Amino acid sequence: MNKIIINKEENLELKNNAINIEINSSHLTLNISGKVLINEFNKKELDNTSITINLAKNSELLYNRFLNINNMDTNITINQDSNSSLEFNHSIIAHDKGKLTMKSNVLGDNNKTSIKIKALTKDLGALVLKCTTDNKDNTNNNELLESLKILMLNEEESIIIPDLLVASNEVEVNHAATISGIKEDELFYLNSKGISTEDAKKLISEGFIINNLNISSKQRKELEGIINE
How far is CA 187 from CA 19, 94, 169, 200, in A? Predict the structure, then answer.
């Protein structure tokens, strides 16, 4: 796939594209039409990007976003018109304090919206994760999924603030939000197979992050390299 590097404020039109993207600017607007695939895998010191994504009618977007990050204060806004499909998968490894704010506006009818965020906190990492899905009034036949999970490998405090705003009776909604550490029974099982506790934690945490993304085996290998840098 082609790669686009964004170094300044941009307003991009993407139609029937499959791209890798690297965002180094503070503001980016993506206008989506047709079928679009975006992969963004990056290791950064800081992410303070504001991203706005506009899905036109009859469009489909699969966005896989992975950050191995120290500090973040990221804002993502998604506006979805009728007969569109969104799958937004965001994986984060947080080494320091950070905040992610997401707002999804479902504006039309017959939309599918899936937002899945998985974050791993380690070292001094802690996150405030706020996600709002807003299904507007007088809309019909929309399907909404909002899944927010943080796996803690430290003793820092993280917060999830989930919101589902539904102003229509004609909507199917599914929702999950969890913060947890690695389960002892998972460690015990892997230890019983001869895997050390340190390696077991690494397997569990990498699987947690990578399996959140809808990517190929080749891209998984690429991502493993970024995780282990």
Answer: 37, 22, 43, 6
